[in-house]
């Protein structure tokens, strides 16, 4: 608090974790204090800030601020995405990197926590501008990353196209062909299922959650926010599991589709044309378009926020509860505010935090690293089955961690404790650093 008064998102993420770790710390407080484990865990190993200069299509030189926060590599190389969005700042990258430590630990795979990004806005930029930006970004980033050091991936604004340009520039600079990035194209070391992984993984976990509580996704109504990578594949898998998804959104507005979202049309609008949701509604008579935000006002059994941080507020949570919501699972990172999370949990809504629910993306990224190391490519079925197993394991691990502290169904507590214990043990075993 004293050191970073301006880092609101980072403080929010740390507060959520530390508050829920209280029962663990209290069992062995003197030890944790002596080792300064919480201080070490909340201070990144290093934070890199650098300039990215590039030339736009008018010949104008543009300057952006880029970040890579290498937070913790106790259990494996730093791993976490690169966000390209005008809102990116150090607080946001630190919050994402901090969350990533626990998420990566929960996957059961050997990956540490990191995150990066830039305040560059890819919207409306030509392919050539995107390439120029990515090449300049990688020219500096390449100094700090490597297949056994730090392996970045995609995030908001960074998809297959950007990863391709970044990978090409890394290869050119280093003269080496290595799995330094994940989310690559299938022709050059990418993994099948990576594109689908976060959305599919979210639904595998939610499916297990619902079954474990004696119910099923079949026939349930779901609301999803966002219309990007996570949202699209969450909608697709939810529908494959028999649910009806009636909403999606972007930063301009949202869609209610009483017949259920037509995923192919949504993919055409968002993935192929990179257009706005108004185009979806123009081609879909059962859908209506609404400016601004409002997805959480729709009656739903299960809400899946899949857009961005702090998009589900206390007022939204109250509306969801009033409409009888049964579960909320975070596809995005920290989409639910602290007050909204607390309220949902108090009201008995099953709430699964992002670090568990959206871990499928990074899990398949780690599988991509494995495939690159052994120079093999796994089939879709094998990789998808691995993903499903990982998500089911995460569900039972966080459930059991919560039970150990007599807090059944407190998945926030369970996820933080299960992730923390693994990382803390590894840090202690490796000595003070
Ligand atoms: P995309 O860029 O593919 O999509 C993001 C979506 O959210 C878009 O519909 C975008 O709308 C909307 N959005 C972004 N910022 C805002 C904002 N400030 N206000 C309202 N809407 C916004 O990103 P992803 O789907 O990859 O990521 C979504 C979330 O999931 C992020 O929190 C990300 O960190 C998290 N995540 C992603 C993983 C992945 O594998 N992709 C893995 C784990 C977590 P618009 O197009 O108008 O900007």
Care to give the gist of this entry?
48% of the residues lie in helices and 16% in strands. The chain is α/β, with parallel strands linked by helices. NADPH dihydro-nicotinamide-adenine-dinucleotide phosphate is lined by residues 154-157, 198, 226-231, 250-252, 306-308, 331-333, 358, 361.
As residue ranges, the low-confidence spans are none
Oligomer: single chain
Silhouette: globular
Q: Please write the string of helix (H) and strand (E) elements.
A: HHHEEEHEHEHHEHEEEHHEEHEHEHHHH
Pfam family, one: ELFV_dehydrog
Protein name: Glutamate dehydrogenase
Keywords: Oxidoreductase
GO molecular function, one term: glutamate dehydrogenase (NADP+) activity
Q: Could you characterize what this model shows?
A:
The protein is α/β, with parallel strands linked by helices and 433 residues long. It folds into 2 domains: 44-185, Leucine Dehydrogenase, chain A, domain 1 (Rossmann fold), CATH 3.40.50; 195-357, Rossmann fold, CATH 3.40.50. Helices cover 48% and strands 16% of the residues. It has 16 helices and 13 strands. The protein has a 5-stranded mixed sheet. Strands 7-6-11-12-13 form a 5-stranded parallel sheet, with helices on both faces. β11, α11 and β12 form a beta-alpha-beta unit. α1 packs parallel to α4 and α7 (194-212) crosses α8 (229-240). It binds NADPH dihydro-nicotinamide-adenine-dinucleotide phosphate.
Detail the topology: elements first, then pairings.
Layout: H1 8-27, H2 29-35, H3 37-42, E1 46-55, E2 61-72, E3 78-84, H4 90-106, E4 112-118, H5 127-141, E5 150-153, H6 160-174, H7 194-212, E6 221-224, H8 229-240, E7 244-245, E8 247-249, E9 253-257, H9 263-272, H10 277-282, E10 287-291, E11 302-304, H11 314-322, E12 327-329, H12 338-346, E13 350-352, H13 354-357, H14 360-374, H15 380-404, H16 411-429
Parallel strand pairs: 3-4, 3-5, 6-7, 6-11, 11-12, 12-13
Antiparallel strand pairs: 1-2, 2-4, 8-9, 9-10
The site of NADPH dihydro-nicotinamide-adenine-dinucleotide phosphate has 22 residues, from helix 8.
